[in-house]
Amino acid sequence: MASGKNWANYVDRALACPSEYPFGTKFVIFGKVWECWDRGGAIVRQGNVIWLDLLTQRAPVPFGTEMEVQVLR
Question: Which of 14, 22, 36, 68 is the S-S candidate for 10 at Cβ 3.0 to 4.6 Å?
Fold first, then answer.
């Protein structure tokens, strides 16, 4: 991951977030806390929409699904 952390230790716990959020920023999604440890070219903020990429074995929702996310700082 862009943070240097080993992705294998963070499956179902980490996500890629826009660079305006520092590594370690926490997001609450599906009632669970996820931590930002990665980046990506398509991982951006567009107005009030934050594109995130969850590190999971299977996509929990279809690509492009909009949902409420709480950002913990």
Answer: 14
